[in-house]
Amino acid sequence: MERMDHLEHLDKHLVDELAQVARETIREELREQTRKQRRTAMLYAASGALALYAGAAVALAVGLALGIGLPDWAAALITAAILGVLAYVLRGAARPHRHPAHEAGQDAAHGRVVGGTPPAGPPGGLGLPYPPMPSTAPGADVPRPAEAPRTDDIDPESPHHRA
Question: How buried is 79 (Cβ within 10 angstroms: 0-12 exposed, 13-18 middle, 19+ buried)?
Fold first, then answer.
């Protein structure tokens, strides 16, 4: 029995040691991946900053070129309009492809049909502002307005509600 206790202790020690090695290995791998991702993120950020300055330089060059033949304010206005149009085009290119409901005329973002009637509920999307009113009381068997009650429909000994 004493030998089994000793083997159990060795197994527990081995399992603990393997778990420690696995934790250290995973920790080192995650550190390495994080280091690579951090470097990649810094390179993307630097690239974006340089692209911003390059775009500003191009906008300045366009403005200065237009300023040769136009007043300065007109050259700046035209340059701003060109940049605005480019921004609008890039925004449209960045949007995901349209959902088939858009092609059918359904504006899914606002829950209404383009050119159609407004939605039945409030714009918050909470449904109707109040519950719909039933045409008759629940459980009542009311004749239609054009019909009069028939005598064979009335049974004085039957309960007041119908099953």
Answer: buried
pLDDT tens digits along 44-87: 899 989 989 998 999 999 999 988 999 988 988 998 999 888 88
Contact 121, 128 (CB under 8 A): yes
Q: Which residues of 39-76 are buried (b: 16+ CB within 10 A; e: fewer)?
A: eeeeeeeeeeeeeeeeeeeebeebbeebbeeeeeeebb
Quote the CA–CA distance of 128 and 37 in Å, as a whole number. Answer: 49
CA 34 to chain centre: 28
> CA 112: distance to chain centroid?
18
For residues 88 and 116, what is the distance between their CA atoms, to the nearest angstrom?
Answer: 27
Report the 10 Å Cβ neighbour count for 113: 13
